[in-house]
Amino acid sequence: MNSMYRGLTEDGKVVFGWLNESHDNFDGIFYHITPRGTALTYKVTFASLAQFTGKHDKNKKPIYGSFEIDGVMTEGGDLVKWDNSIGIVKWDGSKAHFDVEEFYRGSQDCPGCIFSENAVVEIIEGGE
Hints:
This protein is mainly beta. Helices cover 0% and strands 45% of the residues. The protein has strands at 5-8, 14-24, 28-34, 42-44, 50-56, 62-65, 68-69, 72-73, 79-82, 85-88, 90-92, 97-99, 122-125. A hairpin with a 7-residue loop joins strand 3 and strand 4.
């Protein structure tokens, strides 16, 4: 499933779909995901949110990364492995792409720009 966003409901259910922001006087700002092709909507926790990077790991699983909303980074990005390095996929707004800052070998054109290096990564935690 290659939905644009992934999140966890308060009871721990993983949902995929389109992300929406809502406001009310009781909860303030909250986020919900609407799966493709349904009218259902699921309230998800902010910290769990992740966006599909457009890339897949070596096992063909879609890779999701943390991203910023109003200057605050979500925490739902996948934990991935590349050779002997492990890191979390995050959006880097200064470079306008997803990357893994823990991955750097000195030979890369862009430190941490794992996806621009076409490296074969594996999801360790997260995924579908």
